[in-house]
Every structure is written in structure tokens, then in C-alpha cells.
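Thread: Modeling a multi-component assembly for a lab meeting

Hi all, long-time lurker, first post. My supervisor asked me to bring a structural picture of a complex we are working on to next week's group meeting, and I have zero experience with this. I have the sequence lines for every component (428 residues in total). Could someone generate the structure of the whole assembly? Inputs are pasted exactly as I received them:
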Amino acid sequence: MTNRTWGIVVILCGVLLAALPTFAHHSLNSEFQMGKPTELKGTLMKVEWDNPHVYWYLDAKDAGGSVVRWSVEGLPPSYLHRNGVSRTDMLALVGKEVTIHGRIAKDGSKLMFGLDFVLPDGRVIPVGPKVGDDNP
Amino acid sequence: MNYRYLLGCLIAAAMIAGLSSTTASAQADRDQGTKKYAPPSLPTDHSKPAPRRADGHPDLSGMWIEKYGALGTDPAVGKPGGGARSARPASYPSDELPYQPWAALKARQLHDAGNTDPLLHCEPYGVPRIWGGPHPARLVQLPGELIILYERDTAFRIIPTDGRSHPADADPSWMGNSVSKWDGDTLVIDTIDLNEKSWLGSGKNAGEGSGTFHSDALHVTERIHRPDFNHLTVEITDDDPKVFTHPWTYNWNMNLVPNEEMYEDVTCSNEKDYEHELPDKLAATDKSAAAN
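Re: Modeling a multi-component assembly
Sure thing. I ran the full set together rather than chain by chain. Output:
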């Protein structure tokens, strides 16, 4: 393949990558593995509905079967409230089994940036920015 | 050039794009539930004129927001190869700004350090980074002054509109000292005496600061215009001869959100990111800055 052909492929791939969201009021590329989608399944234990980031705490089993406490960081309360996700909705999930999709921390800590919740009945609650929204 | 290779690559790219489109539909399906996770529709009518005050000037008062988007789900769920994708910027956001070569290099170094954003250290946004994004600003126009209440940072500004000059002895501050005057139907706000601690953001993304530092010589001009009832344009010019080669200008186009409310948005009550930020060096793309 010629250099020019590779160049076109690179440009096309770049267009596809550009559709992905970035997050939050400061750069999170230094903190999270943005290219590594992760799924956590466990029991929601606690909700911190606070600025500038909501935090959820999830107890999930690791590969050895031990329960591990994960922190899941989210957008600010105003952004969630304005889009129909309320503190009350989230507090109602405490004690329930949920699946959370997101991006885990680079530093190896049990921390993830949350993008959506999947409830036991299959309902999905979006908590991340919309694709293409580059300034949440 | 071997066009068969090119054709094959284009077909492959089209298939990937098609897959992306298909999964985008699946993504939309995932977002559908018993509840709508999106804000209400905004008024878009451009025909209704901006209201005017008794003094003849346009009334800029109202709740305005630049970004009013819906929430989204994880775009990688259900996508083959989703794990190989990256949301890292392809180049330094600070390269969008006309930095002098030494300053462009410093901005990149601040980005690469990973934990240098003032927001991570519980510091304010400052002018002009306070504008833009998903947090509304409430403008209250009174005789002789404009009050701006920002949801972001739970901050405010009180700006004289009577044409007065800057005081000679204003202390440097995050919001600086602002005065204003009318240029036809546009209110022109002139801000100096800014400290050198804040970052500017970029014209595309105020939240993503990425090393966009400035000096104490920063001079910000905000031209606020209400072209019709439902829209407000904030044109910002950043002039800083100590770090830029020339002034640069960008716009925030804001919509009226008459039924929206303001929420508390303090910077640091629950900020825990600092301890997890690691160096994040991007590949340099602008050879002129890298060479200096």
C-alpha cells in the first residue's frame, strides 16, 4: 500500500475516533484509560451527590472471589439533574445489584469514570456525556 | 498508485463506518427507557426581536447556556474492537492558541505534567474560562451595571456599563477588573488586572484547559450581542503580548433557557482527581514549537 493510501486510511480512522466523547471540567486523559472500556458488576453501596463530581461506591467481586470496593466518578450534579438523573433516583439504587460501564484509572487504583448504569431489569441510565459532546 | 488497494481500504472504512452507524442506533436504543434522559427542547425562533430597555439599549437579561446536551451511554458497549479506541486528543489543545514558541512549549509541558490544571487545586476558573459549556449564566441588566451570575464555580461579576474607566490601583484577581460601554447594540466589556494563575481553556472547549496559561498582561474583551430574543453571542478576544504573537478571538453562542434553574457548582467540595493524575505526554505535531 502506498503512503498516500495509508494516509487516507489514517484520516478515515481519525474521523471515526473523533466521535468519541471526552469528559469533565478538566482533562481526564491523565487519569483514566480512555481507550479501555470496562464493566463493573456489583452492589451499589453509597452515593456522594456532590460537586464537582458525583461519586458512586460499588462492592464487586474480584477474580479470586473477594469483595472489592470501587469508586466510580461522574459528572457534576447540575449536569445530571438537568438531564433527568436525580439524587433521589440514585439513592434508590443503593443496596441493589448494578452494572456500570466506564473507564478505569491509570494508576491501578479501584477507580472508574462512569458512563452508564444497567439495572437488573435491563433499564439503562446514561450518566456520561453524549457522544461528540466535548465539553461537559 | 494501486487503486485496488485504495478501493479495498475505502470499502473497509465504509464497513467500519456502517458498523459505527449501526451501533450508534443500538446506542440510541440503549438510551431509550421509561424516562427521557435529556433536557427540554430549546426555543429556536430567530424572528422575535431582542427586547430593549427604556434607555434604548438591548436587554441582555436572561438565563443563557452554551451547551444543553443530553446524557449518553458508553459508546464502546457492544462494539467489536471498542477497547482499541482512544479519546486522547490528536494534538495539544494549546496549539490552537497563537502562543510564542517558548510559550507553546511551556503550555505543552503543563499539559504533559498531568496534574497542573488550577481546577485540580481547588482554584477558580477566572475570566475568560468561566464562559461556555453546560453551565448557564444569568445576566441581570440594571441601569448603569450588568450583573452576571455564573452557575459554573458559583461565581459572579458586577460590571459598570456607564462608560467609566478602570481604576488605577485595582488588585490582580481571578475575575480581573471589568468596565464596559455600548458599541451600537453590542456591550463591550474590557477586563484587565487579571492574575496569572488561571488557564484560558480553548476556543472550542473551555473546560479542557490543557496548559493554556497566560501572563499578568492578559487583556480580555468580551463583546456581548443579543441578535434576537432567544440567542446571545459572547465574542471573546484574548490579548496577551507577553505570551501570544497576536490577539485571538472565539465565540460562545448561547441559547435562552427561560425555565432552567441554577445549581450549586463549587469547584472543590468533592474533587478527588488530583492524586490520580499521571503524566500524559502527547506526540508533538507542531515542529515550530518543539524546536524551540
